[in-house]
Amino acid sequence: MNLESYFEYLAPDDIRIKGTRVGIESVLYEYIHREQTAEAIARRFPTLDLEQVYATILYYINNQDKMNEYIEDWLAYGKRMRKRQMENPPPVVLKLKALRQQCRDAIQAS
After folding, report:
1. Residue 69 pLDDT more than 90?
2. What is the CATH number of domain 3-109?
3. pLDDT tens-digit map of 9-25
4. Percentage of the chain surpassing pLDDT 70?
5. Could you give the count of Cα atoms lying within 13 Å of 79 in the half-sphere of its Cβ?
6. At residue 87, does pLDDT exceed 90?
7. What is the pTM of this model?
8. C-beta separation of 56 from 27 below 8 A
9. CA-based diameter of the chain, in Å?
């Protein structure tokens, strides 16, 4: 069995499950950090079948050092992006926060 045939290697930091838009990090996060079963993961991602989920888990098991680094990099990237977004929120978020504050001020004034 060639596990690599289950995946599309778009970049060193972007491995997708072939025929889907699901990155292996999504499946592995559910498996490693949320301790979900393969069946639960397949239910969570309806575009995946159980074989694809098991192939991803087996790929992880066979390449743990490399995959742990892949997941750690993905988590660190997500953390950096959330921090950047908090420091520089989009205009719509700023507008919604201002509206929320106006509503709170109006409630307190009455």
Report:
1. yes
2. 1.10.10.10
3. 999 999 999 999 999 99
4. 99
5. 6
6. yes
7. 0.79
8. yes
9. 70
Residue length of the chain? 110
Helices (H), 1-110: 24-32, 38-44, 50-62, 64-87, 91-109
- 87-106 burial, b if ≥16 CB within 10 A, otherwise e? eeeeeeeeeeeeeeeeeeee
Write the CA distances from 89 to 19, 21, 30, 39, 102, integer angstroms.
34, 27, 28, 37, 19
Q: Six-digit token pair at 69?
A: 């680094």
Query: In b/e form, how buried is each residue of 30-51, taking b as 16+ CB within 10 angstroms?
Result: bbbeeebebeebbeebeebeee
Closest CA to 13 of 53, 67, 65: 67
Give the torsion through C-alpha atoms of 44, 13, 75, 52, to 10 deg. 20
What are 76's two structure tokens?
Answer: 């660190």
